Input
Amino acid sequence: MTSTNTLFLLGALLCCNLLPSSHALVLKDRPVLKYGTAWKKEDTAKFVHQAIKAGFRHIDTACQPRHYREDLVGEGWKAAAKELNLKREDLWLQTKFSGLGAHSADNIPYDKDAPLETRVRQSLAKSLHNLQTHYLDSWLMHGPENNWDDHFEVWRTMEKAVDEGKVIQIGLSNFYRLEDVVWAYDHSRIKPKVLQNRFYLESGHDVEIRAFCKEKDIEYQSFWTLTANGDAYRHPKALELAKEKGLSPEELFYAFCMALGISPMDGSTNEVHMKEDIALMNRIRSGEKIFLDSSEMSIIGNALGTSNWNTILEEEDEL
Output
């Protein structure tokens, strides 16, 4: 961990002496698979419970009833923690503030007529209540606002939540233009520590943005990781490589992403697959190299459709 990160964490903890000290709060083990909870509806608590039992410790959600049941994420992690004798600090919870355009008109989790700062604060209060916690490990802006004035009003409010000890770190989501990410970073007091984006061909797999994230020590999190990239991990040569390594094609693609420094969202609803994915992640985090060399990485990378996919990889001395 860099000295800057250490000072950031210590400053956040000092703001509120109730916040625990735990490796799970600082992302030092990244990249890491995070359990994604979108679109799981009434089964959300069940799947979160299963995911934690399988070994997931990072959980992602949003205060957006249209696509997430944040309240059931709270029920799920509490049930799993009780069963496994886990403490709150053994888990890492991330949620998001979603602007008005992200909600169904009949189900907005804050007063739509309130000033913007109030809406952000109400969303945070709702998230803390739903998740049954007094702090968040990570809180993201779910997407860009309509203009930079509104963006920074949201961001300053999120920064205050860090100052108040309600949030450990803050970040961005669904920002696909490098110039926007750089501008948001350069003009923030508390820098974003996460960028969560759809990982797909239409954005060129965020090659330049991921390079910026690496430079600034921002965790790049991917969603639609499997959904948008089937042509790559189902390529005949990729299927052959997966078979050689005793992995499913999906596991091989997760390993590929993690070798690039990406923390993928994993939304599996199959307990066996959950356990397999965690076993793979633990192998990677223990130092095992799933890919022996860059030529094996290229089997998948060249099938992505993004010509410069390996720009970051080429800067590394080894995989």
